[in-house]
Amino acid sequence: MFLISKLVEFLLLPSNLIGFIAGLGLLALLLRRPRLGRAALVIAALLLAISGWTPFGRAALMVLEDRFPQPKLAEPIAGIIMLGGAVDTHITAERGEPTLNEAGERITAVAELSRRFPQARLLLSGGANHVLTAQPVTESAVARDLLIGLGVDPQRIELEERSRTTCENAEQSLLVAKPNEGGRWVLVTSASHMARAMACFRAVGFSVIPYPVDYRTRGAADLRRPVDSIADGLQALDLAAHEWIGLVTYRLSGQTRALFPSP
User: Can you tell me the distance from the alpha carbon of 251 to that of 65, in angstroms, rounded to the nearest whole number?
Assistant: First the structure.
C-alpha cells in the first residue's frame, strides 16, 4: 500500500502531470503526429500558467490550513505528539548534521510546548519513509537531536520509528503512548497536513487535540496577492495536491472514516 500510494502521488502531482503531458507532446512531434503534439504542448503550457500564475494553489492550501484552528491549551496535558516531516534525513545522513526542512516549525513548536507543559510526555512519530533508498537514521531520531539542542530534556522524549505514512503514525503512536482514558494529548503537525492526520488518529480511536503550525498562507489576502513566480504557485499547488490526494486515497482504501474530517 505504501509503494502504491507513493506511485499514485507521483503520477498525479500537478508539476509531474504537466511534465508528462509536455513529454507526450514532444514524443508525438518526433513520431510525426503534429496535431497531437501541438495539442499536448498547448495543454501543458496552459496548465503551467494556470497552476503557477493564479492563486488556485493558495486557495486549495488555505482550505486545508483553515480546517482546524489553533487551540488555547491549558493544563493538564498528558502528552504531545509530533509527526515526522520536519527534517531532511538524506542531508542529515550525508552531512552529519541534523537538518530541518520547510516544516521545521513543528520542532520549534514542540520545544515551546514542552516548556509550557513540563509534565507532558513528548512522543516523536516518524520512521524512514523513502522508497528507493535505505536511510541510516529515522525522522524521529533526527528530530530528537534537534530538540535536545534546543534545551529539551532527552529523558522526556519517546520515539516511534516504525511508521512510514500518516495513518501508520496514528497506529504506532497509539501503541507507544498507551493513553489513559481521559488523558489529553496534543497533536503537532503542519496546518495543511492536520486534516489528514486527524482523520487517521480518529480512525484508530486516539483522541488528540489538533495543534496546527507551519502555515504557508496568510488568509484571504493571498487570493488577491500576485504570485511571485510560477515556481511559487506550482509549489503551493503541489503541496495542496499532496494532501488532497492523501485524503482521498486513505478514504477510498478504508483507512479513514471521513474524507475531510470536521473540527
Answer: 19
Q: Where are the domains of the chain?
A: 2-65+229-252, 79-213
| 3-class secondary-structure state, position 89 | helix
Query: Which residue is associated with the grid cell 510526555?
Result: 121
Q: Cα(255)–Cα(165) distance, rounded to whole angstroms?
A: 11
| Cα separation, 131 vs 201, whole angstroms | 24
Distances in Å between the Cα of 87 and the Cα atoms of 66, 115, 230 are 24, 21, 26
C-alpha cell read off for 8? 499514485
Per residue in 210-257, pLDDT tens? 999 999 999 888 888 888 899 999 999 999 999 999 999 999 999 999
CATH of 79-213, one of 3.90.1300.10, 3.40.50.620, 3.40.50.300, 3.30.110.30: 3.40.50.620
Distance, in Å, from the CA atom of 223 to the CA atom of 221, rounded to the nearest integer, reads: 5
User: Would you say 258 and 64 are in contact if contact means Cβ atoms under 8 Å apart?
Assistant: no
pTM exceeds 0.90 for this model: yes
C-alpha cell at 90: 538524506
What contacts 162, CB < 8 A, 6 or more positions away? Answer: 127, 168, 172
